[in-house]
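Dock 6-O-phosphono-alpha-D-glucopyranose; give full complex structure.
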Amino acid sequence: MCGIVAYLGDKEAEPLLLEGLRRLEYRGYDSSGIAVLNGGGLELVKKVGRIQQLERALASHPLHGSLGISHTRWATHGKATDINAHPHTDASGKLAIVHNGVIENYGVLKKKLAEKGYSFRTETDTEVLAVLIGFHFDTLDTETENRLEMAVMEALREITGTYGLVAIHQDQPGIMVGARRGSPLVLGIGPHEHFLASDVSAVAAHTQTVAHLRDFDVVTIDRNGYRLKSLTHNKAGLEISRIDYQAADTELGDFPHFMLKEIFEQTISIQNAVRGRLNIEESTAQLGGLNLTPQEIREIDRIVITGCGTAMHSGMVGEYIIESLAHVPVEVEWASEFRLRNSPLDRRTLVIAVSQSGETEDTLGALREARRKGHRVLGICNNVASTLARETDGGVYMYAGPEVSVAATKSFTSQAVIFLLLALLLGRMRFLSGTQGKEIIQAIEALPDQITQILKQSAHIRSIAEKYRKADSMLFFGRQMQYGIALEGALKMKEITYIHAEGHPTAELKHGIIALVDEDTPSVFLCPRDGAYDKNSNNMQQVRARKGPVIAVATEGDEEIHQHADDIICIPAAPEYVTPILSVIPLQLFAYHMAVILGRDVDKPRNLAKSVTVP
Ligand code: G6P
């Protein structure tokens, strides 16, 4: 986790670094810090809390200099405190590093360095790396031309773990050294200036020319340009690309929070996921990025979908959609579980890794494990230049635009609609008729207007949230395609409101969960007019018989639902396979309004981070 931004150029570093950190705050936000080099040596300010705390500290102690490194942290080793915040320095206090990742053997290294007489001020793994680089730096002859670069490379040869890092040293004042293994690091190349950052959003306002470092790359930047080396002696140069990234996409505009902005963007993000991918003439989908021949697509006889958090929930919806429309057996597995177990897959099994960021450590671990075993892995992801996008054999981009709020919303509906496209493609290559294909296309094309209808109920949903604002606990229930939505609704509620929330398959209510029902515990039922409607009605009555309040997400025009629920949110009538894309939106709004009413930090909930790059 954590975000890094570094700058070397002819401008003042501090404002550029602060602006970059604000864009990376989604990667972690429990403390932040900046170090700059100027004629007076290394200067450093770091603060626990949000970036505003750092800004306040810098207002009374500005840092001047045109070479600097900065970091926003999500604590792994060591509590969130001023001292544990990055940058970390070595024993001499002349070297500073920022680091994203985990040094797994830091305990052993710390012991070895302590035996040499070094002491440590923090509880972090990163300080051990700083001291180790400093140790190598001090061992090298002072005349050594590439002293910092050599010291970084020597130290990295001794460590196990992951890193995206940048180092600077007071005795080599015109240089910064960046390195990557496992955690992303992007080089931004501008006229007379260079950036290193955890992702392009931190540099996009200044340059559109970027290069993504590969694992084991080490880049040394000075005022004349950059030089690339590799710890594995890889001779390939960096691939330079132009990014198409509008900094305005990460601005709030008229919305009070990114989460609300992103919920409302779903009418557009859905269209972006579908654009150019429908073949109306043949009533099918066209997904060129899969890199599969029609014969290879026909031969797929099993699919394993893997991901974490919201991406995993979209996979659960995908499972039902693909099985019902294409009759291909699908399993969904948490990436953190899949990566560690010996799944008996055969060569006709397709693995699909789903991730908004494309940087989630467990999802990357799962995809690497599947590829190691020789399986074809496709990705569904949003971040075009992500590690997942580069390591999969093919895939489908979401084109949802940047998702800034930690709680995922538009990425979920984009992923679900991509599963629908995939199901249409697989189905039309098997037994779905052209007429059925056409119906699916019509259902997909109707989605933006239907989503607009749901968004109009935002004020009504807020009034329901007001009514239940005192609840300490909530239950979410759904069957079949709605089961993943129950899980997602509960996840949204707990992550941004801190209210205890559980999602369950509706019928499981009777097997223990009903013991939690009382008059203060609302139950949210997903009960569109589908084949399970009568069963759902029975379950709602069972809750009400025990004085439990019932909130129903039901189909427009359903009069009967008034007999079963205290509060009702309507979604437009639609075929069963698209209803999850509609029914999730009221739950996103419900959690959002509840969080605002409770005064929570909606876009940056406590303890969480947008992109979890540690195992
Ligand atoms: C974190 C975020 C979630 C997200 C999950 C997977 O836990 O807080 O919102 O769903 O990671 O992220 P990914 O980028 O892989 O979709």
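Observed: The first strand starts at residue 3 and ends at 8.
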